[in-house]
Amino acid sequence: MNTKFYVDMEDIYGAHNYSPLDVVLTKGKGIWVWDIENKKYLDFLSAYSAVNHGHCHPRLVKALCEQAKNLTLTSRAFRNDQWPLLTKELCDLTGFEMVLAMNSGAEAVETAIKAARMWGYQKKGIPENQAEVITCENNFHGRTITVISFSTEEHYKKDFGPFTPGFIEVPYGDTEELEKAITHNTAAFLVEPVQAEAGIIIPPEGYLKKAKQICEKNNVLFIADEIQTGLGRTGRLFACDHEGVKPDMAVIGKSLGGGCYAVSAVLSSREILGVFTPGSHGSTFGANPLACAVAREALRVMEEEKFSENSEEQGGYFLKKLKTIKNKYVKDVRGKGLLIGIELKPEAGGARRFCEALMKEGLLCKETHEDMIRFAPPLVIKKKELDWAFKKVKKVFKEIG
Ligand SMILES: *Cc1c(COP(=O)(O)O)cnc(C)c1O
């Protein structure tokens, strides 16, 4: 069974909603993965930051297996003994008062929007069905119909309408436009502290802080989508922490499940998340004991292995090294912690061919949009391995450039 066998089978029977690199992985350990031909690669994407812990972290595998032997799913018709512990531990860690668990990131974003609308009607007094949520240009918050309703990416929306109304878009990084867009019916402002999918777009310094102040002044909820940037990726627990901003709601997912299990959550205050009443929202698998046991251990590992500190240190180190690459195709190199991107000029012929060349060198990363190479290794990576990766990057740029 070679690579072609799997690629062909997937292409025949699987829907083509992705264009993966043709590497068929079968094993992972820490920052390394192996393909079916036993070739070893450094994972420089971490499943879009869902694998911050590295692959098959022994403590997470243990937590998963032990919980799987005891109890995996009860539904919320009954209580289980893992969810209460996760709620308390998450709140203690993050300083929020209440948490609601879902499975995927998009579901958690939808949950935050539902909470914001409900809060808007019940607490702010917005007239029924008039609530507005302000979102940013070039946002990425997931793929459900409501979430793509406020996407500005034509490709994400084409032929999926009609869309959910109630969303107003403003330019990212522009607080004046935000302030202008606010009306009496604005329930919330939803923002990514760094726009990762859009191409590692880092807003001007002070943007989040100013935006939060504007929201406060106007009684508008500030919702941070920290699904990709949170839990250490940018060098802080939350990317909002860089500006000392405490959102009214934070949405997390991806690495909350330690790369072992799909689990997401909305974190907020009692005043806001308290609006939900029995029957107003739910999920069969949400807050299941297996998810909770894995998430609890994932949070402990994140803290004990100091992911944020390592991300800040190694990210700074790697960014500095990347900036020494002198190449005619490189337009910009930027990042925060271990969320780093190389933006190429249009004449570079797209980021894809660079990613393919890096793959041949044993470094797995993926283009985002046309011209951006994203580097987001697991947060357990060390200098020595980054030095190795840097050599590969340098070599590929030398060969192609
Ligand atoms: C990945 C991501 C999502 C969607 O998460 P899914 O689990 O794929 O639904 C939402 N927002 C951001 C910022 C993301 O990076």
CATH superfamily of the largest domain: Type I PLP-dependent aspartate aminotransferase-like (Major domain)
Please indicate the percent range of residues in DSSP E strands (runs of 2 or more).
Answer: 15-25%
> Main β-sheet: number of strands, strand sense, barrel status?
7 strands, mixed
What spatial order of strands do you see in the largest sheet? Answer: 4-10-9-8-7-5-6
- Mean pLDDT equals 97
**Total domains, how many?**
3
Which ligands accompany this protein? Answer: pyridoxal-5'-phosphate
CATH architecture of the largest domain: 3-Layer(aba) Sandwich
Number of helices: 14
Query: CATH class of the largest domain, please?
Result: Alpha Beta
Q: Termini distance?
A: 35 Å
Which topology of the largest domain does CATH recognise? Answer: Aspartate Aminotransferase, domain 2
- Based on secondary structure, the structural category is alpha/beta
- Count of DSSP E strands? 15
